[in-house]
Amino acid sequence: MMSQTETNLGAAESAASPAASAVVDASGANPTPVTIVVPHALLENLAARFRPSSLCLMFLNNEGAVAFHDAAAGPFFQRFALPMLQHPDAMTRALRDHLAAQTANAPVTVWNGLPGVTIAAFPYVERRQKLGMLVLAGKSIDFKLGEDVVRVCNRLALDAIWLGQQADELAAYTAEAVQRQARLLLTMVRDQLRLAGLESELTSLSTQLANTYEELSLIYQISGGMRVNRRSVDFFKQTCVEAIGVMGLRGMGVALHCADKLGQEPVLYGPTALDTPTLTRLADELLAWMKARKTSLLVNDIARDKRLAWLAGSARRLLAVPMQRGDEVLGVMFGLDKEVGDFDSVDSKLLNSIANESAIYLENAVLFEDVHGLMMGLLHSLTSAVDAKDAYTCGHSERVAMLAKIIAQEAGLTDAEAERIYMAGLLHDVGKIGVPESVLQKPGRLTAEEFEQMKKHPAIGARILADVKQIQDIIPGVLHHHERYDGKGYPDGLAAQNIPLMGRIICLADCFDAMTSTRTYRKALPLEVTLADIRRCSGTQFDPGLTDAFLRIGMDRLREVVRHQESTARLDLRASAVLGGGAGGNSSGGPTPNAPTAESSAPIAAAIAAGKAA
Ligand SMILES: [Fe+2]
Questions:
Q1: Contact at 8 Å (CB) between 181 and 136?
Q2: 613 CA distance to ligand 1 middle (Å)
Q3: Rounded to the nearest whole angstrom, what is the distance from the C-alpha of residue 580 to the centroid of ligand 1?
Q4: pTM for the model
Q5: What does the pLDDT look like over 210-231, one tens digit per residue?
Q6: What is the pLDDT of residues 149-199, one digit of tens each?
Q7: How far is ligand 1, taken at its centre, from the CA of residue 337, in Å?
Q8: Hey, what domains does the chain have and what are their CATH numbers?
Q9: How many CA atoms lie within 13 A of 265 on its CB side?
Q10: Residue 188 exposed, middle or buried by CB count within 10 Å (0-12, 13-18, 19+)
Q11: Out of 64, 246, 386, 614, which residue is the most buried by the measure of CB atoms under 10 Å away?
Q12: How far is the CA of 474 from the centre of ligand 1 (A)?
């Protein structure tokens, strides 16, 4: 019977949640597996530690059923002790009931009432809940083939002599000795569970650390791409693609309130595809929601959501967050479906972080666009004022800018470089503001002195722009747009590659526009004649490489440029007439000391570039 208990040992309490473990049926006699939640590996490990000491480890669940036993403990335990413990007689049932009744705080209990076997047990506790009893069983010190052991052998159909032989191989235990072993087991269980808890915590921290690192890397990458002069389409594409990878999204999209200003239509990236009307409707509804609520929207079952049920055919889950600066909602970012599982608060937090970073970019991009638009407006006004000094060259700066940009793109320059060349083209003749109108608008040939005045306009333009910090890079284009490839141009007589690239490109565009424009002294040259002249001047007046790029633009596209030129010229002439401007100006194409004429088109490009034209 129960002989002894020990206090102050407490229970084995896990510091971590053990993994669900499968079932162990100890004897094989019970066909119904018993599910336990104690790690099987832990029990196996502990059993192996006590097996050499002739002790058998078992685990009884809260119903008193043997859920685990050391299958390698030997025949004495396999054939005798374990079946005896499981036998449904009154004595063992009382023992099992007693063990099952132990509370989570129960101390080590020793039981020596079984014939030939002594056991010690204590509760296994997880999060203050008792999950069962850990049991150590050993051969009793007073084991002998007496009446009670033989009776059990008969009940179990065992040969008592054989059992005695098996028992002789084992160490014998007093109740106190088994109890000491149980105390040792309790300590080991505590240590192992504490270790398992620490390992679990370490794994959890490692996972959190890895996730945090990924999130920080994502935010860092997004921040790194936040150049205000970067196209919003490129910024949001990079942001969405990277977020899809980190968050495991099936789709991620962006919609902006300021779409018109940035030229950013609603977009969606990832495997999930929406047709344009569906994406537009989703964008509109999310923008309206965000504007009104200014909070995240998380829906893990779209079909059951009245607001979004119409989207159920395309997606199942949605997470949307506002891009907000202060109280102003600038747009919305949204994810559609994940590769695995539902959206949760972690996803919401991360997407909000991404949206907050993106909102900073967005706010700056809008401000940049405002300032850029203001500056470009002022530049257009400035060049229009210059062009207006000569009705026949009105719109010339804009056309040269457009064509120079096309040449730059055809020559393989980047979009950003082409944009700067556009600006240089716009301002290339700004120096004419410092040339007397009597020279600019003189209908006849310029005198040598007048021509010298005209030749000053590139340097004047460069001086005008010198104090504008933001456009320093385009000054070479303004200063050198009348240089010739053979070194016979002005103001510095630079040759070949010494002429800044911007200058060489604008020179080509400038001459093309002058030759295809009507002047007081001649009509516009036909496109074919102009192209032949430009080809002929490749290597003397023009950079051969750029000439090739120019000729690759093609007749159709150049005809469009010429048509645009004719329409703007007509408008300008009408405006000039209304304002009382003369139609006889020739600042760009009029006779010069070596003036070309329409009749002698062959040297016209050279004359235009070297003379006063444009
Ligand atoms: Fe010029």
A1: yes
A2: 6
A3: 25
A4: 0.51
A5: 878 877 888 887 777 777 667 7
A6: 999 999 899 999 999 999 999 999 999 999 999 999 999 888 887 887 888
A7: 58
A8: 2-197 (no CATH), 225-367 (3.30.450.40), 388-610 (1.10.3210.10)
A9: 6
A10: middle
A11: 614
A12: 14
